[in-house]
Structures are given as C-alpha cells and as structure tokens.
Design goal:
- The structure holds two protein chains of two kinds.
- By secondary structure, chain A is mainly alpha-helical.
- Chain A has a domain at 89-293: Orthogonal Bundle (MetI-like fold), CATH 1.10.3720.
- Helix content of chain A is 74%, strand content 2%.
- Chain A has helices at residues 2-17, 24-35, 39-59, 63-68, 80-87, 89-122, 128-139, 143-156, 163-187, 191-199, 204-215, 217-233, 236-240, 249-252, 264-285, 289-293, and strands at residues 123-124, 257-258, 261-262.
- A two-stranded antiparallel sheet of chain A has the order 2-3.
- The longest helix of chain A is centred in the middle third of the chain and has 34 residues, at 89-122.
- Chain B has one domain (7-294): MetI-like (MetI-like fold).
- Chain B is built from twelve helices and three strands, in the order E-H-E-E-H-H-H-H-H-H-H-H-H-H-H.
- Chain B has helices at 10-35, 51-58, 60-90, 97-106, 113-124, 130-137, 148-176, 180-188, 193-221, 225-230, 242-252, 256-294, and strands spanning 4-5, 37-39, 45-47.
- In chain B, helix 3 crosses helix 7 and helix 3 packs antiparallel against helix 9 (193-221).
- The longest helix of chain B is centred in the C-terminal third of the chain and has 39 residues, at 256-294.
- Chain B is globular, with a radius of gyration of 24 Å.
- Classes of the chains: A mainly alpha, B mainly alpha.
- Chains A and B meet through helix 1, helix 2, helix 3, helix 6 and strand 1 of A and strand 1, helix 1, helix 3, helix 4 and helix 5 of B.
- Strand 1 (123-124) of chain A pairs parallel with strand 1 of chain B.
C-alpha cells in the first residue's frame, strides 16, 4: 500500500535524520501558516453559535417584541419566558421526566454492557463475532421501524407512559454502543493485569470491582456520557411511548401553539433549557470526548 | 491480544442478550408478522404472502423517498467530511484553545433533535429569523415552507451545523495520536504541507475517517426528527425521506402491512451497510496490526 510505504519512508527519515538543525525559512513558513489557522475554527464556531444565540436572544424577548420588530439583541430583556417554564408544572415536569428516563437508561445500559464488553475483549467463545455484529446492527436500526411495534409491545405489558418503558426502549441503540465503547477501552488494558490479580488470589468479582473498573474509569465515563447523549436527544420513540405522566420535555415543546398564535418566547426559552444539561456533561468529559466518538479505537 | 477460548463467557453476555432480545427481537418479529398479513380491523388477519413487498418495490413513492434519501446522504457526506478534516487540521494542538474548541464544537451534538429543528425553523423564518431576514433583505427570495430548493438548502445546512463536529472530533482524535517525531522527520526531509497531509496525517486518520463516513452515512439515512420539525417533509413531498414516509404510513394512515414491509426492506438496506461497515473496519484493524508487527 502506498500509504504504508509513505509512513515507512518517514520512519527511516527519523532514524537517519535524528536531531539535524532545522531549515530556518521552512520553520518561518510554517509559523505564518499557523498564525492564520485559528481563523478556521473561529469562523466555524461562530457558525455553530449564531443559531443558538438567536434562540437565546428570542428567549429574552416578549412575544410582542419578537413579532413587531427585528432586533439583534433584546430591547428590554425579560426573564418572563423562563418564569413560565419554572412555575408551570406541565413544563417543568417535562424536564424531570426526561432526566429520569435518561438516568435510568444510562445505568441499565452501562451495567449490562460491562460484563459483556469484558467477555468480548478477553475471551473467544462460540459465535462471538456474529453476536458482536448483531449488536452493531441494533445501533443501526432506524427508530422509525420500531416506533409502532414498541407501542404495541409496551401496551401489552402495561408500561405505556412510564419512565422505565422509555429507558428500556432506548437500550435498543445504547446497549450496543456502550458495549462497543467499553470493549475498545478494555482492549487497551493489558491482559497480564488480569492474570497477576488471579495469581495474587483475587476472586473475579473482587478483581473486577477493585482493580479493573478503576483502570477503565474514563471508559465507563465516556460510555455513560454517550448513553446520556443519545437518550437525551432521541424523541421519536420517547414521544410514541408516553402520553402525559412521562412525557419528555422535547415533546412538551410541540404544544406551544395557543389561541393567540405561537408562543415563540416560551418555545425559545424551553429550547435553551434543553441545551444546558448537554453543555454541562460535555464539560466533564471534554478530554475524552474525541476518543469516545471513535468508539475507544484511536 | 491473544484471547483465551472460554465458552463460559456466554454467561457474561447473557444480560445484554436478554435485554436486546426484549427491545429488538420481539418488536422485529411483530413487524415480520404484519408484513405478510392484511387486516380489515377487529384484529382479524389473513395471510397475503409477499404481496406487500411486490407493491412496495414497484411503488413510485418508495423509489422517490429512497432516491431523495440517497441524494441527501451523499450531499451531506461530500460537505461534512472535507470540511471536518479541514477544521480538525486547523485546530490548536495545545493551550487553552483546545478545551474551548472541543466543548463549543460538541455542543450541537447534544441538542435534542427536535430542538435542532426548532432552532433552524426559527432561524430561517423571514419575519423573525436572523438567516431568513438577512437573505430576504439581500433580495434573495428565501422561504423554506414554499420553495423546495430553499427547503433542501435549509435541511442540508442544518445537518452540516448539527453533525460536522462529529467528523471534526474524530479527525482531531486521530491527529493528536501522531507522534511529534513524524513531523520533525518531515521537516528534515523538506516535505511540503501537502505531502505531510497526504503521507502522515491522512493515513493516521484512516480508521477514524471510516467510522465518521459510515456513522454519518447511516445516521443520515435514518434521519427523521430534524427535517420533520423544519419542513414536515414538504413542500409537497420534496423533503420526505424514508423515515418520514414510513412514520406517515404506519402511524398517520395506519397501513400496517405496507408499513411493515417497508420497515423490513429499509432495515435490510441498513443491515447491508452495517455489514460493509463492520467488514471494512475489521480489515482496517488487521491492516493496522500487521503494520505494527512490521515495525
């Protein structure tokens, strides 16, 4: 392969060149190149932030101001829209519902995925590859295919409109994802550690809890983050399985049309509030996020 | 890593197996069941064989949705992959800029999908949205609820906004794993910027780019919520992708048989892609191992 030869040539270059002095002009050229390179991420981030800013801007305006004039920032900033959400139970219970089923789902997904990922990363067993592939196909299953059968299945068990129903349904794509991520991180831990622990007389559960789990703590964090993320952003299944008692916030947002037309201000405020939990969790996993998106395989 | 053969490992996989069987296999069986039957209500079903499949594969509606979805997927790939690589290359490697970039860029990925739709629905409106207002004041007639071209442009820009960061983060993860010695060697050899990219950075990003391409392809193939909120599949049917069409059929019209048949065909298409994904990724993994062995 040409790419392989390319890198190999460079490896030889390292061996031959060693610490030879750098060409001054080239170093300079590279510096001018990097002087302007900050512009690209800056422009991109501006592009990302503009629509979010616009929503934020709207959330601080009254409906009258939104509809009557076009302003880049609110003339008279008001928190009235946020107050509506925090005082009306049909609004804020949406947040509680969402967070409840997302947390349930994260716990279930990571708990069942841990032993499975360990098995996949350490042992060969009958049908392991087929099983792994089958799990992957579930991550790739279109939620639209499952919406209707889910409704019938959970109706049969009397689970419609409960948090656990949504949490279980989201396992469809989160369990395979958690297994994948954890398997990637676990394969990075040398097997000698397991063997040494057994020689030292650790039983399997003790080894797993006391030695192995701390070693892959970042992997568990990343897996939990991704379960949180995909359960938090999903709406099609969550909306199909709930009516009132477990209705997610994102679904509550669809009913802002009142007799006086669209309630844009409250809609914007609700949107902004759904972004905040995501922003918080990103901050905690910022150092691992890239590796996590690569399913632990960088 | 050498793996030990141990069939007792099945017990460790059992919880996942039971859970996924409940959440995936049982519903899928329901779909298969409907796909071969017809009903006149009252829970009376009778066998119709492959009639629904014949009808589906001959129907123009399905062809159109499939073609639209393929065009959409390839368009966003053509934009997001080069753009993502470019941005990742320009990102700072150390200093305070790194966490700032990572957190801000990852933000769109954690916005609930219907809120992404809402954000762009508002942003693009001619009366109250920044983008719509701006474009219309420039004299461009932009209205995504009436003009199919504007609707497509909005849906594509929205997807670029939503998912390019995924490509950026993956490429960035690949880039920071390159040891500094490689760049030093390239400098000594007098390698051009292009050569550094072509022979050092691109090969190192190979495996993460594969993940990016295939994840983006499959997720865009299943897209539902965002275009549904913004355009509702319209104007006309111009942004009705496969998932939107399927939900319309299953829940809107309650045509269980045809909807189930479509679900299966849809799922089989995705399954085929998953298989390609899995094989390609596994091969990339073995290649990497062989290469590491040579070193």
């Amino acid at each position: 392969m040409s790419t392989t030869t390319g890198t190999a040539a460079i490896d030889q270059g390292v061996a031959a060149g060693g610490q030879a002095p750098r060409s001054r002009t080239r170093a300079k050229a590279q510096r001018t190149g990097s002087r302007y390179s900050f512009l690209v991420p800056t422009l991109y981030i501006t592009f990302l932030m503009l629509p979010i800013y616009w929503l934020f801007n709207m959330s601080l305006k009254t409906n009258q101001e939104i509809l009557s004039k076009f302003t880049l920032w609110p003339d008279e900033p008001t928190l009235a829209n946020y107050m509506v959400i925090f005082t009306d139970p049909s609004w804020y219970s949406g947040y509680i519902n969402s967070i409840t089923y997302v947390a349930l789902n994260t716990v279930i997904s990571v708990a069942v995925a841990l032993p499975a990922a360990y098995a996949f990363s350490r042992y060969k067993f009958l049908g392991d590859k087929h099983l792994f592939f089958w799990l992957l196909t579930n991550r790739m299953a279109p939620p639209a295919v499952f919406a209707l059968p889910f409704f019938q299945l959970y109706s049969a068990f009397g689970l419609i409109d409960t948090h656990i129903a949504v949490a279980l349904a989201h396992c469809l794509f989160n369990v395979p994802l958690a297994v994948w991520i954890l398997e990637g991180f676990m394969s990075g831990v040398p097997k000698e550690i397991d063997e040494t622990a057994y020689i030292d007389g650790y039983s399997f559960p003790k080894f797993f809890g006391k030695i192995f789990m701390p070693l892959i703590a970042s992997g568990i964090g990343v897996a939990a983050f991704f379960c949180f993320m995909f359960s938090w952003v999903e709406l099609l299944i969550a909306r199909t399985l709930t009516t009132t008692a477990a209705k997610p916030i994102a679904a509550t947002m669809t009913r802002t049309v009142s007799a006086s037309g669209m309630d844009w201000g409250v809609l914007a405020a609700a949107g902004i509030l759904t972004i905040i939990p995501g922003a918080l969790v990103i901050y905690f996993v910022r150092n691992y996020i890239a590796k996590g998106f690569a399913l632990g395989r960088v | 890593m050498e793996k030990t053969v141990n069939n007792k490992a099945w017990f460790m996989v059992l919880p996942v197996l039971l859970l996924v069987a409940f959440t995936a296999v049982i519903p899928l069986m329901t779909v298969v069941n409907y796909a071969f039957q017809d009903s006149f209500g009252n829970n009376q079903f009778f066998w119709v064989g492959i009639e629904w499949f014949q009808e589906l594969l001959a129907s123009e509606r399905f062809h159109d949705a499939l073609v639209r979805n393929l065009i959409f997927s390839f368009t966003i790939l053509a934009i997001e992959i080069p753009l993502g690589i470019g941005i990742a290359l320009c990102m700072p490697k150390k200093g305070w800029g790194v966490p700032v970039c990572l957190v801000l860029m990852a933000l769109p990925l954690l916005v609930p999908w219907n809120v992404v739709g809402t954000i762009w629905q508002v942003f693009g409106r001619a009366d109250i949205g920044l983008l719509g207002y701006f474009l219309n004041s420039l004299g461009i007639n932009y209205n995504y609820t009436q003009d199919p071209v504007a609707a497509w442009a909005t849906v594509i820009v929205m997807d670029v906004w939503h998912w390019t960061s995924l490509v950026v983060l993956l490429c960035y993860a690949g880039l920071v794993s390159i040891p500094e010695a490689y760049y030093q060697a390239a400098r000594i050899d007098g390698a051009s910027r292009w050569a550094v990219f072509r022979y050092i950075q691109l090969p190192k990003m190979h495996s993460v780019l594969l993940i990016a391409v295939l994840l983006r392809f499959m997720d865009s193939f299943m897209i539902y919520t965002e275009p549904f909120v913004v355009t509702g599949g319209g104007p006309g049917n111009s942004t009705t992708f496969l998932s939107i069409d399927l939900v319309k059929m299953a829940i809107g019209q309650f045509d269980l048989g045809p909807a189930a048949a479509m679900s299966l065909v849809y799922f089989l298409i995705i399954l085929l892609f998953s298989w390609v994904f899995y094989t390609v990724m596994n091969n990339a993994g073995t290649e990497k191992k062989q290469y590491a062995g040579e070193e």
